[in-house]
Design a protein that fits this description.
The complex is a heterodimer of chains A (about 240) and B (about 450).
Chain A lengths: L6 E5 L12 H12 L4 E5 L12 E4 L4 H14 L1 H7 L3 E5 L1 H4 L4 E3 L5 E3 L6 E18 L8 E13 L4 E8 L7 E6 L2 E4 L5 H4 L1 H12 L9 H15 L1
Parallel strand pairs in A: 1-2, 1-3, 3-4, 4-11
Antiparallel strand pairs in A: 5-6, 7-8, 7-9, 9-10, 10-11
Chain B lengths: L1 H16 L6 H11 L3 H6 L4 E5 L4 H13 L5 E2 L7 H9 L10 E4 L5 H5 L6 E4 L13 H21 L9 E5 L3 H7 L5 E5 L19 E3 L8 E3 L11 E5 L9 E4 L5 E4 L6 H16 L4 H8 L11 E4 L2 E7 L3 H7 L10 E4 L25 E5 L3 H11 L2 E4 L25 E5 L1 H10 L8
Parallel strand pairs in B: 1-3, 1-4, 2-3, 4-5, 5-6, 6-9, 13-17, 14-15, 14-17, 15-16
Antiparallel strand pairs in B: 7-8, 9-10, 10-11, 12-13
Classes of the chains: A alpha/beta (about 240), B alpha/beta (about 450).
């Protein structure tokens, strides 16, 4: 695809779903694609704007409860994201953005709120809020490296038959049943903040490879290696 | 009470002499352990003012205390110890001021409801609410809701006129922050002040109904107005802070009062955020009977707050210290830095007082540092380095650049012979405190 067309990346409503630094995922994906020679159009969608249906990749981040409900209602009414998913676009949802892709999640005051319904997961409440470092061992090919990040959520996410767990929790809570995140076709959900794609370059390159249809060449960065080494040592200490 | 206070002072003094901290908070904790109602007892007979916000509360408190002191002595917790124990300690150690001197108290935003319950007719100064760090459970909307409930409860009990109920609080509040307005509009006595809102990302959703908040700027205005389809909207401010306008120095701003009176703010403290802090302080002082003509010259004498903006010597270099603890605060810092290509040192820690996760670094527009060299230090320097990598900013990481041997500094940061320039260093709360301590900086109030 290099040289043939530009990659179109869309961050969905970052003012609603970007409270926890997850806006960084769009920066990371854009920079890693450009470093491999791809041209990138990265768009941050204003809250409430219609979702363009023809983009290659959509990212949704974490957000506060009311903002999550406002985003989910707008996305359901708009329908653009669901149609993009139907065409096989890549979608990455983090925390609130992961939950709202599913069938149902706890809305304002814990009242169940319908999600966008493009991910075979449902979310209800954890008994105790999950706050802290999250470390998980990937169980999704071709991921090899430990997944590291920070979680802060009260959601217990249950995977349906069509979704597969992304990883097994080594430390932290994740989905709440010993697994972390989910993958279904080209839709990926995770509780990893940090942002998750900055802390886990292998995960960032995996979703980019879904977009371009080929594996990406290595892009070694000592800064990222140093951060991962420091975080893994701190969590396993 | 007297015994409790004496014991608290003893514990505080002991802690200080053992170099176990500043002693203040320990003393306050001892007093509260013996006498849980200590705050109310110590505050009795005083006009209490609580200054609260995510950003700027320490500075606004210091400016307001300076303004009040220009007229008559006031009590304040200038150390930044803003939880109940710190406030109790400040009142308990205020023996040099008259028993009826006003108490100008910085209050942590999550403790404001608790403090409110122990105060008679306090004046609240409410600046802004925005995101802090990821490990903090108190979402912005949740803090605003708790404030609103606490305010509404006080108004209801005052109106019911039950025996022993205290008069309801009054407030000076920022009309440009929807979260602050949502909380403060539960009060009946509010003076709205327009001081702007640089950071709007935490009030994208209407606190009243959950719809998306609309914003627009009218022609000829610099501050946007905001409203929601449910009818909740920006109240008309009685006081407005506007930029200085043509011919004015960049740092000057005008505060326009209810009768179109105009006051030019001339501050030692840099940046638009401090103009906003000063505006709130002036309006609060005015409410307490100290006119702007008296307050303004006092504000101009404040040049450093808890060591912020102070210049110290570190690693053989002259270093100016800045506090950068969250995205909204950082959005103000870029404009305060020495112009590019001046290098910058940034120290990132993630201890409890900093917030235990530095993901917020990705909400800061570090792209604005392109063209400079940045030295990343502090315990979480690698998080910053990755952020700078993706921002395209030249950088290096050094665990401790401030050894007596100036060679520990990367070449980009070493002063050329005869170069007296000052290097800017920005730190998270604990990293900043460490720089201040190592540089031997004064930390007013302690």
């Amino acid at each position: 695809m290099a040289g043939e067309s530009r990659l179109r990346l869309v961050s969905i409503y970052p003012t609603l779903l970007g409270t926890y630094g997850d806006g960084g995922n769009l920066r990371v994906l854009s920079a890693r694609a450009r470093a491999r020679g791809y041209e990138v159009d990265a768009v941050e969608l204003d809250a409430g704007a219609p979702v363009p249906e023809t983009a290659d990749l959509y990212v949704l981040g974490g957000g506060e409860d009311d903002a999550q409900v406002a985003a989910a209602r707008t996305l359901r009414a708009d329908g653009g994201l669901a149609r993009a998913a139907g065409r096989g676009a890549v979608i990455v949802g983090v925390c609130a953005g992961y939950q709202l892709l599913g069938a149902v999640f706890p809305g304002s005051g814990g009242v169940p709120e319908p999600g966008v319904g493009i991910f075979d997961v449902t979310t209800d409440r954890l008994a105790k809020r999950a706050v802290g470092e999250l470390l998980a061992t990937p169980r999704y090919e071709p991921l090899r490296e430990p997944l590291t990040g920070y979680e802060n959520h009260a959601g217990a996410t249950h995977l349906g038959a069509a979704a597969r767990a992304l990883a097994t929790v080594e430390q932290g809570i994740g989905n709440g049943d010993g697994t972390e995140g989910a993958v279904q076709g080209r839709v990926l959900g995770t509780y990893l903040h940090g942002p998750g794609l900055a802390r886990n370059p292998e995960l960032a390159d995996l979703v980019l490879s879904w977009v371009v249809g080929t594996d990406l060449p290595a892009w070694e960065q000592p800064d990222i290696d140093a951060l991962r080494a420091e975080r893994l040592a701190a969590v396993r200490r | 009470m007297r015994v409790a206070t004496a014991l608290g002072k003893f514990a505080g003094g002991l802690s200080k002499s053992l170099h176990r901290g500043d002693g203040l908070v320990i003393g306050g904790r001892v007093i509260m352990a013996i006498y849980p109602g200590a705050f109310g007892a110590l505050a009795a007979g005083r006009q209490v003012v609580f200054v609260s916000a995510t950003n700027g509360k320490t500075t606004t408190t210091k400016l307001l205390a300076a303004a009040m002191n220009a007229a008559a002595p006031a009590v304040t917790n200038s150390s930044g110890a803003n939880m109940p124990a710190g406030l109790v300690a400040a009142l308990a150690t205020a023996s040099r001021t008259p028993p009826n001197a006003p108490a100008i108290l910085e209050a942590d935003e999550t403790y404001l409801p608790t403090l409110l319950a122990q105060s008679t007719a306090p004046l609240l100064v409410l600046g802004n609410l925005s995101r802090d760090q990821l490990d903090r459970v108190g979402e912005v909307a949740m803090v605003a809701r708790r404030w609103r409930k606490a305010f509404a409860d006080r108004v209801a009990s005052a109106e019911a006129g039950t025996a022993g109920t205290a008069a309801a609080p009054a407030a000076i509040a920022n009309a440009d922050d929807p979260q602050v307005v949502w909380a403060a509009s539960a009060l009946t006595d509010v003076i709205w002040v327009s001081v702007g809102q640089q950071w709007t990302a935490d009030s994208a959703v209407c606190p009243a109904c959950g719809s998306i908040v609309q914003r627009s700027t009218s022609p000829g205005e610099t501050t946007p107005t905001w409203w929601c389809s449910c009818g909740f909207s920006r109240p008309t401010p009685s006081w407005r802070l506007v930029s200085g306008g043509r011919g004015a120095a960049d740092d000057d701003a005008l505060l326009i009062g209810p009768d179109d009176e105009r006051f030019r703010l001339r501050l030692e403290l840099p940046g638009q955020a401090n103009q906003a802090n000063a505006a709130l302080a002036i309006v609060a002082a005015d409410r307490l009977g100290v006119r702007p003509g008296v307050a303004l010259p006092a504000l101009a004498t404040v040049s450093s707050v808890g060591g912020r903006y102070q210049t110290v010597t570190l690693g053989g270099r002259s270093v100016r210290l800045l506090l950068g603890k969250n995205p909204a605060g950082w959005s103000e810092i870029f404009g305060m830095l020495a112009p590019a290509p001046a290098p910058v040192v940034i120290a990132i820690n993630a201890r409890a007082a900093d917030g235990k996760d530095p993901s917020w670094l990705w909400d800061v527009e570090f792209e604005r540092l392109a063209g400079r060299f940045v030295l990343a230090t502090g315990e979480r320097r690698h998080d910053l380095a990755v952020r700078l990598l993706y921002a395209g900013v030249e950088h290096a990481t050094v665990a401790d650049p401030w050894t007596p041997d100036a060679a520990a500094l990367p070449a980009q940061l070493r002063a050329a012979p005869g170069d007296g320039s000052t290097l800017d260093a920005v730190g998270t709360y604990t990293a900043f405190r460490e720089l201040l301590r190592r540089g031997g900086g004064a930390d007013d109030g302690r």
